[in-house]
Amino acid sequence: MSHRTVDLAARCRGLVKDFVSGATAQRVLDGVDCDIPFSAMTLLVGPSGCGKTTLVSLLAGLLDPTAGEVMVLGTDIGKLRGKSKVVFRGRNIGFVFQQYNLLPALTARENAAVPMIINGAPRRRALEKATELLNQVGLGTKADALPKNLSGGQQQRVAIARALVHDPRLLMCDEPTAALDAASGRTVMDLLRAVAVGPDRAVLIVTHDSRIYDRGDRMIVMADGKVTSTLEEKSMFAGHEQIGAT
Amino acid sequence: MAWLAIKMLVGDPVKYLGILFGVTFATLLMSQQIAIFVSLLKRTASQILDINDADIWVMDKVTRFIDEAPALPDQDLYRVRSVPGVVSAVRLVYSQLGARLPHGGYRTVILMGLDDPSLSGAPTRFIAGSLQRLREPDAVVVDKAGYTYLFPNEPLELDRVFEMNERRARIVGICEASQPFTTLPVLFSRYSQATQYLPPNRNLMNYILVRGTPGTDQQVLCDAIEAMAQTGPRPLAALTREQFAMKTVNYYMESTGIPVNFGITITLGFIVGLAITGQTFYLFVTENIRQFGALKAMGVDNTRLVGMILLQGFVAGSTGYGLGIGLAACFFEGTAHVPALEGFGMFPGLLVGIALTVMAIVTLASLLSIRKVLVLEPAMVFR
After folding, report:
1. Which of A91, A202, B108, B365 is the most exposed place for a label (fewest CB within 10 A)?
2. What are the structural domain ranges in chain B?
């Protein structure tokens, strides 16, 4: 299945990334081509060290490519520099991290409001929107709880609310279920599908967790810094269940 | 973002209290030590500054500070009076001598012998007795702290008698006077009375207190007096009250270890405060580094992060400064009635100076941490 550029949340072509240390350069991505369409939950899988994290960092504008093109929401993010890149990221991309990275001093509601506040929204409006999102993820009663008083699954749901509070069109999740038990992991994935996938929204999930493969719509498989295959049918995911175990 | 910065700061009570402790400690130590240092040095000139009815002090040119003034002959008094612009010039004896107390005790005192007709240089604030009684035979006025020093734990009482140079002295007044550097009692008597207490030297007058015609430039008058003295047998120095006070302070600054001792303590306060604050702030930032990375990933640029960290430093610095100054104020309030510390306290310039120093401490402490955040790759949140 091919996607026209206009239907793609993100696209990269011939993407190369080298990490230079002293006189030596290590090529981590070597000519990666991939598409992230709207209205889909795309899984990015592959063994440790294959370049998944680097690819998602490039798509998020957290790293600059050595060569190649990275188009995100119609913008060549690889060419953005300085504040314009930071602002673009802040407005258009949401993040869910493996370690949640909630601010320990803030309540669940305040944590969820942070991206809106970063984007300049009034605090009251941000907190109201955060409350709505927490209700959507089933944590309305825990809005005033500090992260230390929440379970791992609850913290991840707060992180999802935070990632979505400013209506980003592209959501990037790094191992969102890795620290959760199977049931909580499935709940988180169902939640992501319910609140983050839409006609002009896309979700990219980096994962090792084969328990959640059946929750994805597409799968990009990587190995040794290259995309080895892109699977468009769920029935094809099964053969890759052992990838994450390496 | 200011809200977020402050929430992050106070949301980690252990670190926040650690930073506050560092700033408070530095503020307390520096403000208290500088206040004591300045107050102590001011005491070296307190008897000069207490005399408000003289514009100019004339003395032997070799005088380095108030306690070391060679006696002048009466001719110098008459010569000063002849200088145009001088309205009045009167004698002043300033000397230290021994006092034999009724119970057999012995104390060193400072005796100030005032011009008999005018009593220029006399104290103005009396707790008991009056200045008029200084004209009675054997009369002396003593400062309150001095009275306590002479008669510890005894009520203030007039007409108590003691001896100086085997001559009778009777307390006819107890006054308020600034404490001298040596905390010795300050006694005031008439000049003619003072000459009876002092050893029989040819000359006894140490200073000439001068008042100029209203509107006269004091420096011009000082220059005129010194110019006149160049033609006489010995050179004289004529200094305004403030100049002589500063000369005395400078003598103690240059000739004693006081500035070095206080300087070391004040520097230690700065260094320890900086070390505690810097280390705790650094730990605070280091332990929150993933959160800072997440903020960077979510769209906070370096400028805003630096602003957040500096704001955190400013808030911690301001709070710690307030606590430190408050504690120092409590110390000086609590010791206000201790004779050795009477009159010691802080002053506006000190408060401003300490505020700037504290801000320097928290800025330096913040800068140590800011570097770590500036070089932080936001991509680290995916690792």
Report:
1. B108
2. 2-44+257-382, 62-234
